[in-house]
Amino acid sequence: MIDIHSHILPGIDDGSSCTEESAALLSSSAAQGIRVMAATSHFYAQENSPEEFLRKRLHAAKKLKTVLTPDMPQVILGAEVQYFTGISRAEMMEELRLMGTRVFLLEMPFSHWSKQIEAEVAELQKRESMQVVLAHVERYLDYGNMDFIRDLMDKEVLIQSNASFFLEHKSRKRALHMLKNEEIHLLGSDCHSVDHRPQQMGEALEVIEDRLGREAIDRVKHLSYRLLEGGKVIA
Asked: Rounded CA gap, 94 and 52, in Å?
């Protein structure tokens, strides 16, 4: 299985603080059946230029490489890009895709979206080189954005949810309903540390298989591998 959303690079954002913690997260991921992890560190346009972010990411990746072992998941570098006004016209957005793929993980505003926001995301998706994936969809639902989400799905934007969406009692039913109705396409742990927001993909997959059957997991798995085919892993 692929974990398409994680914060395992050491010392670059609010995720892993050091290489030891990164190694622990990767080992935990492997134990839960994860074979590939997308390292999607936060990109905030108001804090860094793409060039500066890529420099910091490379430095963190070099540190991570020193603790990688053959039994750990393969790691593909990417970013979780926070939406900003003008993103559809901004330069170098392609550089923030998962390396070697078209996947562009986008964190949307935690508010009710406007038609302008929807239009900008749709413009990104129109790029031949871009497959937009909305990160952790569950965080936008309380703001009344489901109609916008469905509109973007009609434009071939893909939807990712966190493992925790399937584990919390108050949200599990909705998560399973959305996955069954193919309103969730991809899964990620969004893991940040061993203690705070740990790797929970294994638990989520157990819930999904128990309630929806193995075919629901296989659908996510096959799409994930297809999207990341050719992705450049940390050697």
From this structure: 15
